[in-house]
Design brief:
Elements (H helix, E strand, L loop, with lengths): L1 H14 L5 H8 L12 H6 L3 E5 L2 E6 L4 H10 L1 E5 L4 E6 L3 H6 L13 E8 L5 E11 L2 E6 L4 H17 L5 E4 L3 E7 L3 H6 L14 E6 L2 E6 L8 E7 H14 L4 E3 L2 H10 L26 H6 L5 H10 L3 E8 L9 E3 L5 E11 L4 E9 L8 E6 L2 E8 L13
Parallel strand pairs: 3-13
Antiparallel strand pairs: 1-2, 3-9, 4-7, 4-8, 5-6, 6-7, 9-12, 10-11, 11-12, 14-17, 14-19, 15-16, 15-18, 16-17, 18-19
Length: 407
Amino acid sequence: MRGSLWQLGQSIIRRLSEADKKAVARRYFASVADLKKTVLYDFHVAHGGKMVPFAGWSMPIQYKDSIMDSTVNCRENGGMFDVSHMCGLSLKGKDSVSFLEKLVIADVAGLDPGTGTLTVFTNEKGGAIDDSVITKVKDDHIYLVVNAGCRDKDLAHIEEHMKAFKAKGGDVSWHIHDERSLLALQGPLAAPVLQHLTKDDLSKLYFGEFRILDINGATCFLTRTGYTGEDGFEISVPSENALDLAKAILEKSEGKVRLTGLGARDSLRLEAGLCLYGNDMEQHISPVEAGLTWAIGKRRRAEGGFLGAEVILKQLAEGPSIRRVGFTSTGPPPRSHSEIQDEKGNNIGEITSGGFSPCLKKNIAMGYVKSGLHKAGTKAKILVRGKAYDGVVTKMPFVPTKYYKPS
């Protein structure tokens, strides 16, 4: 327990630049009395959840099983995550699409109703304020979820631009869904287990699609998506129904779907090659540098019109100076801020996330290197505690994704 807490604390501190440490440390290491609790807090504790401070919330890092076992079980059977610390919100109004397109890189107008995509909120310099999954529920209703650690920053950013937009006659309003909780159900058993709890045919709901439907007697927002690379769902449920839904999911799985904490969630997303904001994406990193060029809609590349578009479109035309890549390595697992060198000992970049893969049984990592040194198979040296170990640029995802798509 002590080791897990220490590792979590160190991983959080490693995300911070020296200038930000004091301010952000207050956010992550608030006194226990100040921590917010999800409606499932007592449920986590009753099931052996080891609770730690995270982004101002008391969250389970793991349960009675190890992070290693929990990660493997999610890929083999399934895992259920309480992600109610994340912030869901809706934008409504006839101009909600055009408003949001001023802030994100996605072609929101081009989405069909009931479909969504990963996108990035950008700043004036083309850097990433946050990444988010957005869904066009209808032409006048957008649903999105932003990261817990970025909530205050994101909401202030959206509100500032919304005031200016409305002052010019734009029709858009918002609602922050603090009345709802968010559960993530991931893994091969996710769909068959959830199907027991709804009359809607989940086989007709594909990756990235969204529905409002009845699940276990409650009106839920259901998105077929997740943060593990597995098939699965994120379920926004009224908070008064969250506990019953969590119990029902575990019961219908006959013990195969397990409660899963932040530790395994981090291992799973790294194996899937997915960014963690604050590690792999920050305000000085553009979506192009982060390898998210695919998330910039074709129309948006032609028209721009979002914050930082001039910088981003120039990078698309000329290529970025750095690129996010994956690595496998020998020796101890590399961690955030481990230096990357070429074979002659010259600095070429830095690791942003790394660890031992529970499923692949080897070291994996991602980081940024100079363009030209980003191709798969490029050999490198990774410094861990001052000693250089062999590494090689590796294609991501490290573990093949299993998203449910039309055949």
